[in-house]
Amino acid sequence: MKRLSVLFITLLAAAGAHAGEVQVAVAANFTAPAQQIAAEFARKTGHKAVLSFGATGKFYAQISNGAPFEVFLAADDTTPARLDKEGGTVAGSRFTYAVGTLVLWSAKADFVDGKGEVLKSGKFNKLSVANPKTAPYGAAAIETLTRLKLLDAVQPKLVQGENIAQTFQFASTGNADLAFVALSQVFKDGKLSSGSAWIVPGAMHEPIHQDAVILTKGKDNPAAAAFLEFLKSPYAHAVIQSYGYALR
Amino acid sequence: MLTETDLQAIWLTVRLAGITTLILLLIGTPVAWWLARSRAWWKGPVGAVVALPLVLPPSVLGFYLLLAMGPHGPVGQFTQSLGLGTLPFTFWGLVVASVFYSLPFMVQPLQNAFEAIGERPLEVAATLRASPFDTFFSVVLPLARPGFITAGILTFAHTVGEFGVVLMIGGNIPGVTRVASVQIYDHVEAMEYADAHRLAAVMLVFSFAVLLALYAWRPNPKKGA
């Protein structure tokens, strides 16, 4: 027992000497690339990035109320900018790590045509969107529907995901025929992973600039700065682009 | 004051809880009666299944219900074959979920009440040539009245307090699946704390009033129930 605890303490000390830990709040659309990047980050630097996934608006509320996050990868630029203004961040740390793409997706093959005409046809049971009040991709979806003058027509068929991950899950389980999700959720290495999709032209909505920022809680943590730096590395850029994001 | 959508959410919640309570009275009474009277070996397993929602995280219930009621699930295939479509994102989908979710809150108080009656009144009724049917309505129901009231109030209140399952299968549709608990969550997430406070206060007062009524009404154990 004693020997075991000595071993444990030694291990703990060894781990503490070289590596830190950083708590990262990640917008749900960036889940898959963030996991891949965090794994490589741990291999390269020895630091561990502990990832939490959710809606950007929810994270904002949590961070403003003292959540222990040190780095924030948001799904928009307005939320990190607001935190900047309120003094909740490390000044000058904010930058756009990815530019997101909205996509109309169905789990069924050949269900969505290349121009999104299926929206006008009305031949679908439900259309799943993320809560536009808290999820930037949800706001972009509503903006797109408004621009297409289809919002009123599809209103009775709208269902809301709590964040972009649940929005996708409603469609992937087949409960909704259609969903407005992030391209990154259905795209890998230059092609759709499954189903059918219409990649919404960027002109249909405000560009989805996704900003990263170091939060006040992470200002003295070298692992936080290292993680943000790693996000700018060629490796991270390649991963981000492989999921269909653009870089700024 | 409460906004239009808040009132809509409250009314929806009351309707959901009311309908769920009625349905569970119909389903729960025979189940509780059987559990109280039966000596079958599978009484144990049935009792355990009834109590499951007390223990299971709502996410487990929501996950299974979403898959089962979806277009590829058994329930979904059945409802589609009836031409009813699928249940997730509908009011009746929430009713089905709530019936599962609140089942033990109906069955267990009823079962306790039925067990408390004991054999004697039933035997007396039988010697007076009352049919089992007659016995149930003239003897059992009046004697088990406190149990019914407790079960009804608990079921109603527990359904009002439902959140996780609704979040998973509801789709947050105003007037259809956006119940009060989800509406509060929405307000909080959007940082509309003033709105959240108003609705949350209503829920707090309601819950306290319900429990107060329940405890105040409960017969004094010294007098014997």
UniProtKB/TrEMBL annotation, chain A:
Residues 1-19 form the signal peptide. Molybdate binds at residues 56, 164. The keyword Signal applies. Keywords: Metal-binding, Molybdenum, Signal. InterPro entries: AvModA-like_subst-bd, ModA, ModA/WtpA. GO terms for molecular function: metal ion binding; molybdate ion binding; tungstate binding. It comes from the Bacteria. The keyword Signal applies. One of its GO terms (biological process) is molybdate ion transport. SUPFAM superfamilies: Periplasmic binding protein-like II. The complex is composed of two ATP-binding proteins (ModC), two transmembrane proteins (ModB) and a solute-binding protein (ModA). Belongs to the bacterial solute-binding protein ModA family. This is Molybdate transport system substrate-binding protein. It comes from Azonexus fungiphilus.
Automatic annotation (TrEMBL), chain B:
InterPro entries: MetI-like (IPR000515), MetI-like_sf (IPR035906), ModB_ABC (IPR011867). PROSITE patterns: ABC_TM1. Keywords: Cell inner membrane, Cell membrane, Membrane, Molybdenum, Transmembrane, Transmembrane helix, Transport. It comes from the Bacteria. It is found in: Cell inner membrane; Cell membrane. The chain crosses the membrane at residues 12-36, 48-69, 89-107, 199-217. One of its GO terms (molecular function) is molybdate ion transmembrane transporter activity. It is a multi-pass membrane protein. One of its GO terms (cellular component) is plasma membrane. Residues 10-216 form the ABC transmembrane type-1 domain. Part of the binding-protein-dependent transport system for molybdenum; probably responsible for the translocation of the substrate across the membrane. Belongs to the binding-protein-dependent transport system permease family. CysTW subfamily. PANTHER family: MOLYBDENUM TRANSPORT SYSTEM PERMEASE (PTHR30183:SF8), MOLYBDENUM TRANSPORT SYSTEM PERMEASE PROTEIN MODB (PTHR30183). This is Molybdenum transport system permease.
